[in-house]
Each structure stands twice: as structure tokens, then as C-alpha cells.
Amino acid sequence: MSTAPVIPTGPLHDLDDWDDFLEGRYKEGKSESEFRQYDATATPGVAEFYRLNHENQTVDYVLEKEKAYFSLKKGQKTIWEAAEFLNTLVDDSDPDTDLTQIEHLLQTSEAIRRDGHPRWMVLTGFIHDLGKCLCLYGEPQWGVVGDTFPVGCAWSKDIVFPEYFANNPDRHNTLYQSKYGIYEPKCGLENLHMSFGHDGYIGEVMKNYLRDESLYMLRFHSFYPWHRHGAYDHLCNDKDRAMLEWVLKFNQYDLYSKGHTKPNIVELKPYYDDLFAEFLPPTLAW
Ligand SMILES: [Fe+2]
Ligand SMILES: [Fe+2]
């Protein structure tokens, strides 16, 4: 595919800045109180990114984006085509030393494979960030990446930078500010409208093909308030609680599998061709 490279514009230098911030936030051995000591002056780009995210992710915004993207009208693509499309998203630093998006995906999936996890989980590792192509459809950084949270009910204090919700218009809606908001108690995470981003989108693309464990990893991998801090339990059902262990298992690889060695794509391709064919149709609607 010969699509021209796209450099995302926004307060983040590139989308990986958010991943790097997460990795620092959840450094192994860091306590809950240390987690709270991030500071906006140390990472001004990341703080500005969260300010935009928290101010703009409203119920109306989410419903509009779900309508635009969850009908999957962006065309048919194979997994490799989707990965190559995502590869056109580059950052403006040194292209020789930085890993491409495909290389990042392979690092995650290969780390899962090395640890002997099931094949469907290796697949999940490879595809989990393909939804970042939303940037290439013109969506802003704050609408593609970032920790996710449900909209239409009270924001948890466990969402990073909660003070930035001060200027979210949903603050003035008493229903949206109540504990359950527009939802029923224990309605299940699958019935929530999550803040819009790459997780929800890839979950929709894959929903007819993969098992629940995989779909939870895709849909909720950025839902840190839930999987790391135990927030929103009042909206969870038994299925969510059973799936949590898988999301946590996956999170280790999402956070800590990045290295600087480039995976050999040519060597790995036959394995992944078989893996995609085992679980997915040749092309998927995006
Ligand atoms: Fe992600
Ligand atoms: Fe990721």
C-alpha cells in the first residue's frame, strides 16, 4: 500500500507518548499513592492531552462517534493491510531508530507467544492497537488513545487527572453525574458507552470472530480505572469479574513488552498468516 505518511497533530509528540506515560505510572513496585504523584509540569504535553480528552468526551460525542464508526463502513481490509495502513502513521522523530507500528504490535504478540499463551491471545496482542488508525481517519489524539471510562454516569476519582473534568459539559447534567447515571446497577461493562477511542473500535471490528476473553482485552485494555483500580464495580456483572483476570494478564504485555530490537517481519509472516487464517475471515469490515 502506498499511502503517504501521516504525522498526527496534537499535544502529544506521537501516540506512543501516552503509552510511555502509562508505563511510568504503573512501574512495577509502584504504590497506589505514588501512582497519584504524576505532575502536569513534568509532562505538559500529556497533561494537555488529558485535559482535551476529559473536556470533550461527553455522552453526545461518544454516541456520535459510535454511530460514525461502529457500523464499519470504512471498507474491507485484511489484517496485514490494516497494519500497513496503521504504519503510515509516523512520528516526526528519527525514523531509523524508532520502531514502526507493525513492529510494536509484533513485540506485544511475540512476548505473549514466548510465554506459551494460547494462540488466540497471541492474535489479540497483534491486533489490539489496530484501532489507532482512527487517527488516519482524522480523529484527534484525545479521541483515539488515553485511559477510557464510561460516559453518562459519575466519573470515578480513579481516572487520571480527574480535575480536568471541570470543563466537561456533562458536569451540568444531574443524571450523568449520578452514581449509575443512564445505566442499571450491575448492567455489565458490555452495555456501557465508553469514552471513544481505539479500544472500542477494534472491539467492534472483531466482535463476530473472537472469544469473550479476547474481546474484553480489546475493548477494555485502556480502562485503567477498572482493571487497575477496581472502579465501577457497581456496574459490573459476574462475567466482567470473570474476564478481569484475562484483561490483567494482557495488560502486562501491553505495558511492558516494548524493547528496542526490531522483530523480523519476513521471518514471522508465515506464522501470522496461519494465525489470522485460523480465527478470522480473509478480509474484515473496518
Ligand atoms: Fe491500546
Ligand atoms: Fe497497546
Automatic annotation (TrEMBL):
Its cofactor is Fe cation. It is an enzyme of class 1 (oxidoreductase). Its main location: cytoplasm. One of its GO terms (molecular function) is iron ion binding. It is found in: Cytoplasm. InterPro entries: Inositol_oxygenase. Pfam families: MIOX (PF05153). Coiled coil: none annotated. Keywords: Cytoplasm, Iron, Metal-binding, Oxidoreductase, Plasmid. GO terms for cellular component: cytoplasm. SUPFAM superfamilies: HD-domain/PDEase-like. The keyword Transferase does not apply. GO terms for biological process: inositol catabolic process. It comes from the Bacteria. Its EC number is 1.13.99.1. This is Inositol oxygenase. It comes from Granulicella tundricola (strain ATCC BAA-1859 / DSM 23138 / MP5ACTX9).
